[in-house]
Amino acid sequence: MFNNVVVVGVGSIGIKHALFLKQYSKNLILVDPILKSTERADKYSEFDKVLKLTSIQNLGLEFKKGDLAVISNWGPDHYKTLISLVSKGLKDFVLEKPCADSLLEIEKIWKVARKHNLRVAVNQGWYYDKLGLKINKIGKKLGLGEVKAIFVSGGARCISTAGSHWISLANQIFMNNPKFIFSSAKNDSINPRSKKLSYYEGVYSFNYANDKRLAICLTNSSSVEGRVEIYWRDAIGILQSEKLRIYSRGDFPNQIKITKYGPASKLIYSEPLNDQKQSFLNLYRSFKIFKKDAFFTDLKNHLNVTRSILFALISSETGVRLNFHKKPDKGFHDRKFKIS
């Protein structure tokens, strides 16, 4: 698929990108300060013949069409990494989530992409798998009507990483961005990447048009995986480990009052929806099949997901329900939240 590929940041997710791209690039380059550590040599044994650098500044290639960079280092460093690589001639990028850690840098990424005519894809796997559209199609085929709400619960999964998937999924299912955001969040110093990075638990509410809603409830005091629940009028879908199971009321009580409470216990659908390898393939194939305008549309959607996360953190600090389409105070607009 690609000629020269640079992967910046080879932690747990960067390694996955590198292993995948090793099959689809002519020349792979890994960049990370950690590569100077001999203690971790075993972790990178599959890349013995791959060029490894500790800094972007050591890149000596003249980049051309067909080259690609993956930005998978810490979230607070994404924007400055993008700028540095653009200055070296790169035009095509895969950006890890969250896209940035401030509203200001979200706006800067958008401006840079437009100014330099970049093609930027974001590793929001469910987005490129069209998971939300698949779920809507399944619900329609089963006669369930529209999804009314999505409720997510679980243990220590920071809103900035897993939350990106859930908000992106809700945006695709509801075919819009949230209108209002309100939350109560708390940051703990338990981020496995570094104690310098945030790790937020909390209760988050995202209200959409037509009374649709996404609610996320996470606690850093539990290691339990949790799950995603998708509610139709008379059915519930449980999305767990990439598999969707849907249970209905059985009697399909469409004509009775909504307050006629009852369990959804009849299994009417149980299938896997996607796998990670296919998600990576869908992500990277976009550079071969998407037109330029599609990249700008998708990037705007991805940046809006990160914007929603940052609005949730700002709402928690201010105690105010925020309108997604209005700018918060400048102090919050420029602030880096250290999410990654």
Separate helix tally: 9
Query: How much helix, percentage-wise, in residues?
Result: 25-40%
* Biggest β-sheet strands, sense, barrel: 9 strands, mixed
Silhouette: globular
Percent strand equals: 15-25%
Distance between the termini: 28 Å
| Low-pLDDT regions | none
What letter string, H or E per element, gives the SSE order? EHEEEHEHEHHEHEEEEEEEHHEH
What does this entry show, briefly?
This protein is an alpha/beta fold. The chain has 9 helices and 15 strands. Helix 3 runs antiparallel to helix 8 and helix 6 (162-174) packs across helix 8.
Walk me through what this model shows.
- It contains 9 helices and 15 strands.
- With about 350 residues, it is of the alpha/beta class.
- It has a 9-stranded mixed beta sheet with strand order 14-13-12-11-7-10-9-8-15. Strands 3-2-1-4-5-6 form a 6-stranded parallel beta sheet, sandwiched between helices.
- The radius of gyration is 21 Å and the shape is globular.
- The relative contact order is 0.15.
- The model has no long low-confidence stretch (mean pLDDT about 95).
Features:
single chain; 9 helices; nine-stranded mixed beta sheet; 340 residues
How do the helices and strands line up, and which of them pair or pack?
Elements: E1 2-8, H1 12-21, E2 25-31, E3 51-53, E4 68-71, H2 78-86, E5 92-95, H3 103-115, E6 119-122, H4 125-128, H5 131-141, E7 149-154, H6 162-174, E8 180-187, E9 200-207, E10 213-218, E11 227-231, E12 235-240, E13 243-248, E14 266-272, H7 276-289, H8 292-318, E15 322-323, H9 330-334
Parallel strand pairs: 1-2, 1-4, 2-3, 4-5, 5-6, 7-10
Antiparallel strand pairs: 7-11, 8-9, 8-15, 9-10, 11-12, 12-13, 13-14
